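Blinded run. Sample ID left blank on purpose so nobody reads anything into the name before looking at the predicted structure. Input follows.
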Amino acid sequence: MSLPVQHQDYKNAADPSGLMKVMDVEDAHDFSFFKETHFRHMLRVERMRTERSKKPFLLLLLDISELLNASRHEEKALSKIKAALVPSLREIDIRGWYHQNSTIGIIFSDISEEEDPFVDLIMHKIYDRLCNKLDPDWMSKVNISFHLFPESDAQTCQGEAFNINLYPDIMKISLGKTLSLAVKRMIDVLACAGALLFFAPIFLAIASAIKATSPGPVFFRQERVGFNGKKFFMLKFRSMRNNCDSGEHQKYIAKYICDQKESAVEPGVFKLTNDSRITPIGAFLRRTSLDELPQLINVLKGDMSLVGPRPPIPYECELYDLWHRRRLLSCKPGITGLWQVMGRSRTTFDEMVRLDLKYIREWSLFLDIKILLKTPQAVISGSGAM
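Blinded prediction complete.
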């Protein structure tokens, strides 16, 4: 979120946490200014701390690349900016290079209030200080923005992408990983194209059976949350009566996420059993996982991959704890995944998320191949009905 240009006087605004008690002395100590690698590590640590403490933090970014490029005296410009910032910061505020020699980052940790006026107060204190200490021509070349963590549920669970500025360590992809991801995408496209041709007769047979036994469309389109929080429509063969209410399924999901001590779930993404809404042909399709075949089309479109975490429904995300959200980051959702092939034992939702996070953390092409090879056995045994 970018700072409004209009100046506002917040000198007498309430400051319940004492966050903006400013040291006005000019000779304030210049606390540690970290290099990019260490600053991004500290940003990751703060995210993990917030996941446990639930106390939000604010990331302030000052893009000074235009100023440094235009200035003949880069060191002088940078020195003046640091001198303007330091008196406005606490010792516990983390400052350093978000982008080396381009964008300065400051992390205000342990913010007790999330309301916009409080965040606005912080921003205008910094803005006013910079305006007072820098020439107007210099100030016009500084772009200031702020990013609050955690993002609101409306952002992360209702289809808006994650704020990637808060996850630079995750979003940075090495050359080796870029090549591996390109190979993964090539495998997805070639395998799905071949599978669609191979399964074409089965597609026709299933479509005919669905039409013959239940009025309504052949495909069921369901909104899901995918790569980095973006929404897409996932395809399945329709296994229920047309236009069924989702209320029963929402209660079912809430039970397994919120009552984990009393509940566990087979690795099948919360599929209801003995549901009166399921058609006879639908029961067979679910038992054999044939209802998942149309997701090959989602893979071809690029919304999904053959292997990855399962894409959740938006109302499922609304029940997520902060750390659960990491399963949606930096990895396309998949038709099959690590927890689908981990055996028949029933598992809690938290355990499933940990397996997804393990997959994201340890991902390799070899791991994908292992999962793909194990998937048929998991489906036949019933432990991996997706």
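Unblinding after everyone has recorded impressions. The chain has two domains: 33-150, 173-381.
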